[in-house]
What we know:
- This protein is an alpha/beta fold.
- It has 2 domains: 2-174, Rossmann fold; 177-211 and 248-360, Dehydroquinate synthase-like, alpha domain (Up-down Bundle).
- Helices cover 46% and strands 18% of the residues.
- The longest helix has 21 residues, at 214-234.
Amino acid sequence: xxxxxxxxxxxxxxxxxxRNETAKLGRIIKQLDLGTDAVIITNSRxxxxxxxxxxxxxxxxxxxxxxxxxxxxxxxxxxxxxxxLLNRISRFDGLGRRVFIVALGGGVIGDLAGFVASIYKRGxxxxxxxxxxxxxxxxxxxxxxxxxxxIGKNLAGSFYQPxxxxxxxxxxxxxxxxxxxxxxxxxxxxxxxxxxxLFSFIRKNLKKIxxxxxxxxxxxxxxxxxxxxxxxxxDERDNKDARIILNFGHTVGHAIETAAGYGKRYNHGQAIALxxxxxxxxxxxxxxxxxxxxxxxxxxxxxxxxxxxxxxVSEGKIMRALGHDKKFIRGKNxxxxxxxxxxxxxxxxxxxxxxxxxxxxxxxxKKR
Length: 368
């Protein structure tokens, strides 16, 4: 088992990365004294695959277990499902119970469950048990939890740290290829923003990653988790301009997600891959990024099974969604732009014409 720590004073916690060690989860949670009554928030598919093992582990540690099931889609991150969970948990909670929450699933489950934990009784403990590559390398770490509103993604949210992140890479054996590729978008992001060595490792070991080689996956999850932990420690609440580098690709990417109807055409990783290409195009036009580095980023995205061309989503809808991006400050747009592989800069007030141009290139990428 590999471990890395997010050091945030009394909100510190460990990220544990392992293989085939679900049986240890209950004992670890028991030692952390999160509570006596676990509410496991998940979806029906994940419950069928991993619910029995997680339940057995928690029961063996003397903990009570209750499952709450939500849809297997971005639609779960809604006001409707959030309020439904709060009411059901409140009915389960009672005299003598000490409720805590376990987020068992991908990024959607982690965001929703963490947000519910942050507002139920003004905060109860929760643990992240991510089952997708995207969640293991990114969304389960750092305490950003949220639900979506009609007009935009993650617009109702909190900063609320988990007490534990427990990533068993054996879960990834059951991950559909599309979801594995989605997670690779975030892995590539970490290489571009912070580690040329990680980017090179991904390129050299891509076939092993796609074959779900456990040793390679364990290293990738550990490296990405360590990078994110370091960034979060410097800027937990995203107000010191350090954490914003984690948004590389997410400005245009989130707008594509919103315009496309939250997963109906592009899942999160696919949208972020397109967003990284758009940001890289802007960087080239501003003479910040070399053509050779751009081509390396594009090739790795394509070889990972991610899209490099945008279809079925209008430029107008994407631009309207961009107008509601919560990363904009006082009406000024902000973009994370690569200047080389492993280094980025933050630029504000990118001209609208250049943003539109970056989106236009995605429709086939025939002209740049």
